Amino acid sequence: MNAAPFRLFPVSPRADMDYALLWTSLLLLALGLVMVYSASFAYAENDHLSSAHYLIRHLVFLAIGAICAVTAFQISMEEWQKAAPWLFLAGLLLLALILIPGVGKSINGARRWLNLGAISPQPSELMKLCCVLYVADFAVRKREFMEDFKRAFLPMLAVMALVGALLKMEPDVGALLMMSTLVMGILFMGGLNLWIFLRLAACLLLALPPLIFFSHYIYARILAWLYPQNFIDGSGYQPFHAKLAFGRGGWFGTGLGGGVEKHLYLPEAHTDYLLAVIGEELGFVGLVAVVLLFVLVVRRAFAIGRLCVDLDRLYPALVAMGIGLWFGLQGFINMGVNVNLLPTTGMTLPFMSYGGSSLVVNCLALGILLRVDWENRRLMQRSV
Q: Which value, in Å, is the radius of gyration of the alpha carbons in the chain?
């Protein structure tokens, strides 16, 4: 296959790594660091904390993420593939531990965090990466059965049903839908029969209405999304003030630090709604820059994956494209929520939003992606 359509820059076997991917990711991380401080200092001061409280914590998580990325880069994809089933089991165990009283931490009615004192990791974030690694391994092992529904999908369906049950009990339906989409996407890229894929996609869509109807908080969020004017004092409060932020930003924004909505008007301004603060302070131009940076990261991930296909490296190919799909989909969902194109999901903006678990796992995934690219270049150097 020809990977050229998926590349913005040609891959040179003489380069050590994909510097376009590396620098673009670093730009997102740096911009996220600045915007988290801008969006959070008012909340920190309101809680009688240092204005740099969230900035310092974000820096600590960023340092941990950098260590994880460097460590992940040192591990070969062969070793990642061997560890994939065990990592997936570890992720399942962490999801189950959350449900134990005293072990899991509940915030705003959702039990999604482990209670470890000073830090509260969110296992569902790690589970996204575990899903990518495990499903890619599953697709490679079942490659010759991808035309067979029973052998190609039913075992994965059973495993994901267990994951779904655990996530539903937290509840974290956003993560459930995200992982379901990742699984479907990786299996399809791994060779799952098109008609099987379409039928499964149809079943997933048919399952959404009862899921929404029988989940009170999801139903409330859907109503707030459809009729925000009726829920301004409740679940429609965030989308309403996010719109105000975007409206104030205009073309070029109010200037860095000059936003109004972050001053206790827009809840979760430094986490789920960081993009609204970017829109207010950096304007439409700033938003376009962020979107283009994400597009570049996703396209580089798929370019790396397509090159793996050319080099007959199926597992690294599926991992790279799975990570690209994850970053792209989660970024799109977060942006869609911020502009009220989608109902509130609670998903962070990759590389940018405040949130230790998300930031560390994103960096870990980036390290794996750079490792895939590095191994590609080593193979290309040997053939030159």
A: 21
Residue 107, classed as helix, strand or coil, is: strand
At position 351, the amino acid (one-letter code) is F
How many domains in the chain?
1
- Check whether the bond before 123 is cis (ω within 30° of 0): no
Q: Coil, strand or helix: which one is 363?
A: helix
User: Could you tell me if 113 and 104 are in contact, meaning their C-beta atoms sit under 8 angstroms apart?
Assistant: yes
Query: Which domain does 320 fall in, by range?
Result: 4-383
- Facing residues of 104 across strands? 101, 114
Query: Residue ranges of the alpha helices (H) in the chain?
Result: 19-46, 53-74, 77-98, 123-141, 149-152, 154-169, 173-189, 194-213, 216-226, 237-249, 274-310, 314-338, 356-383
Q: 10 Å Cβ neighbour count for 249?
A: 25
Q: Which of 129, 45, 101, 76 is nearest to 362 (CA)?
A: 129
What is the CA 104 to chain-centroid distance, rounded?
A: 22
Are 305 and 376 contacting, i.e. CB atoms less than 8 angstroms apart?
A: no
Buried/exposed code over 171-200 (b: 16+ C-beta within 10 A; e: otherwise): bbbbbbbbbbbbbbbbbbbbbbbeebeeeb
Single out the residue of 357, 354, 356, 363 nearest to residue 327, CA to CA. Answer: 363
Q: In this structure, what DSSP letter does residue 116 have?
A: B
C-alpha span between 327 and 382 (Å, rounded):
31
pLDDT, tens digit only, all 384 positions of the chain: 333 333 444 555 556 778 999 999 999 999 999 999 999 998 888 888 888 999 999 999 999 999 999 999 999 999 999 999 999 999 999 989 888 887 777 776 677 878 777 778 888 899 999 999 999 999 898 887 777 767 767 777 788 888 888 887 777 777 888 888 898 899 888 887 777 778 777 777 776 666 666 666 676 777 777 777 677 766 778 888 888 899 998 899 999 988 888 888 888 889 889 999 999 999 999 999 999 999 999 999 999 999 999 999 999 999 999 999 999 999 999 999 998 888 877 789 999 999 889 999 999 999 999 999 999 998 888 776
